[in-house]
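Can anyone check this?
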Amino acid sequence: MKKGIRVIGIDDSPFEKFGKEERVLIVGVVQREKLVEGILSAHIKKDGTDATEKIFKLIKNSRFSPQIKLLLLNGIMAAGFNVIDINKLSGKLKIPIIAITRKRPDKKKVIDALSKLKEVEGKIRTIEEVSESHKISYKNNKFFIQIAGTDFKTAEEMIKYYGIEPLRLAHLIGSGIIKGESSGRI
């Protein structure tokens, strides 16, 4: 693995599932080695369809864009059912994407829940096209990853080498901003 590359971790902030808010804060942390070099943020629509494009613009319009070589996400959905098309995003950014979750994603359960919402056809297609999840271990924790722009072996090596710290920090920052205090874990 190449040393000194910049990795960005992006996570959505806590929100009330049935609350009146329509926009949800997403936070990105840019890190190189152990050094945080920047924080990025944007808003996406709760249960919307704009997450992929907003994340693309967030990264592409930042001064860090040319140096970012890996994107870590907390799963492929943000702000409820705003599905992130990691295949499309990886192609546009020309970097690998690793979506990390603690529990194995259940495509059937998600598709069943989505079928009750509006604008689901594209979301369902995106979920069906994403890679199957793979189980990995990192620092004595088990995670499941879905990947785009790389293969499983390389993704596993990237996680072991670069870690998940930018994603963890994005989660803590988003939680701290919205709730006034950080909580939870990715």
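Reply from J.R.: I decoded it. The mean pLDDT is 93.
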